[in-house]
Amino acid sequence: MSLKARIADDMKTAMKARDAERLAAIRLLMAAIKQKEVDERIELDDAAVTAVIEKMVKQRRDSITQYEAGNRPDLVAKEQAELAVLQDYMPQQLSEAEIEAIIDAAIASSGAAGSKDMGKVVGAVKPQVAGRADMGAVSARIKAKLAG
User: Fold this and answer.
1) Using CA atoms in the order 97, 125, 58, 67, what is the torsion angle rounded to 10 degrees?
2) Which Pfam family name is an example for this entry (predicted)?
């Protein structure tokens, strides 16, 4: 079953269970997927759906940070509930050791010697960790390894 079909099935299940919070989060996700399909005039595959989910997860994390700074616990709770639903559809996250191994292999295979070669390493690592790790954190690790 495709990821998009699984999300649609989960939406029906949430409707039947009258789970309003989960249903609202899934509807937001389905709307984002449909918007992307309309904008690009294509049918999204699992990788593209995962990219949409990843973007929404990042938005929720940023919102949570902002709401915590603004002392809005009601909005923090709402965003955290949406984040939990979205993370159900993300692939299994990589462990710290797996990320390190991927970065080390990319540095070795690309022959990167310093920070000027960061683009090569990021280009090699990104397809392997897409959706399974935060690229901002991975980029910071690569930068630290190449600098040190």
Assistant:
1) 60
2) YqeY
Amino acid at 24: A
Give pLDDT tens digits for 101-145.
998 888 888 887 777 888 888 888 888 887 788 888 888 888 888
Could you please state the CATH topology (level 3) that the domain comprising 3-87 is classified under: Hypothetical Protein Yqey; Chain: A; domain1 (1.10.1510)
Does position 94 have pLDDT exceeding 90, yes or no?
Answer: no
Query: Are the beta carbons of 52 and 60 closer than 8 angstroms?
Result: no
Q: Which CATH number does the domain 96-147 belong to among 2.60.40, 1.20.1250, 2.40.50, 1.10.10? A: 1.10.10
Burial of 142 (C-beta count, 10 Å sphere; 0-12/13-18/19+): buried
